[in-house]
Design a protein that fits this description.
With 216 residues, the protein is α+β, with helices and mostly antiparallel strands. The chain folds into 2 domains: 113 residues, FAD/NAD(P)-binding domain (3-Layer(bba) Sandwich), CATH 3.50.50; 99 residues, D-Amino Acid Oxidase, subunit A, domain 2 (D-Amino Acid Oxidase, Chain A, domain 2). The chain has 5 helices and 13 strands. Helix 1 packs parallel to helix 5 and helix 2 crosses helix 5. The chain is elongated. The structure holds flavin-adenine dinucleotide. The site of flavin-adenine dinucleotide has 21 residues, from helix 1 and strand 4.
């Protein structure tokens, strides 16, 4: 329901949260907020999905033991649960378990970090030299001095279908998702009343705004 109209700009109802960008992050955010009963507006400047952002293409690797830090593992365990949940709701396979490999010189961050994550969290894994890896997985021809951590629970997601699944499920929970509607600006509403978001087509208000700044 429209509440106000000024010149050619339409002031729509307020939302609990506006999410800018329906890529992998924004679509999941919109879905999870809507599922919690929040009134959500998702704004995407291109189509949903599209090939102009970070989330396009066929696959994105996922695994439990990340080399960056063992603290990621708990997040990843939860992420696996949530991927299974959205798969069920969307009735579509999004997460393929294939096993995954993190490889590098023995003292590299990639190999050592992944091994540390696997060991600290007691995750299933195997360690191979480059030669052993080639014997087990002939597609890999790595130098002998390279060490590889194999984790059977690694796999990949199909990112564009993940976006579609999250957006459809968000809409089923009552979220409004607008494609081809770029955000051109936003500002806090005076008095701490939330935010006002301006797009190419309209102006919206919300208590909260989810926005991911571009890397400079
Ligand atoms: C080639 C490549 C390979 C990768 N491989 C992996 C991998 O194997 N595993 C892994 O975990 N990660 C991987 N990543 C990282 C992962 O893909 C990204 O972290 C993730 O896709 C980021 O999602 P996002 O929603 O933040 O960004 P995006 O998908 O770019 O979404 C941002 C959205 O915001 C929209 N937007 C921006 N400005 C506005 C505006 N003003 N108004 C409205 N909408 C706007 C954009 O159009 C876009 O749709 C890879 C990334 C790349 C590029």
């Amino acid at each position: 329901m429209l509440t106000q109209q000024r010149t050619n700009r339409i002031y729509a109802n307020r939302y609990d949260t506006i999410v800018i960008g329906m890529g992998a992050m924004g679509s999941a955010t919109a879905y999870h907020l809507a599922k919690r009963g929040k009134r959500v507006l998702g704004l995407e400047r291109f189509d949903v999905p599209h090939d102009m952002g970070s989330s396009h293409g066929y696959t994105r690797i996922i695994r439990l033991a990340y080399y960056e830090h063992p603290s990621y593992v708990m997040l990843l365990k939860r992420a696996y649960e949530l991927w299974r949940d959205i798969e069920q709701r969307a009735n579509e396979k999004l997460l393929y378990i294939t096993g995954s490999i993190d490889a590098g010189p023995a003292d590299s961050w990639v190999f050592k970090g992944a091994l540390q994550s696997a060991m600290e969290h007691d995750l299933a894994h195997e360690v191979f030299t480059g030669l052993e890896l080639t014997k087990r997985f002939p597609g890999y021809q790595l130098p002998q001095e390279i060490m590889a951590l194999y984790q059977p629970e690694g796999g990949f997601l199909v990112p564009e279908r993940c976006i579609v699944a999250h957006v459809f499920e968000a809409m089923k929970q009552g979220a409004e998702i607008h494609g081809r509607e770029g955000v051109i600006g936003w500002e806090p509403i005076q008095g701490g009343e939330g935010v006002r978001v301006h797009t190419e087509r309209a102006t919206y208000e919300a208590d909260n705004l989810v926005i991911k700044p571009d890397r400079a």
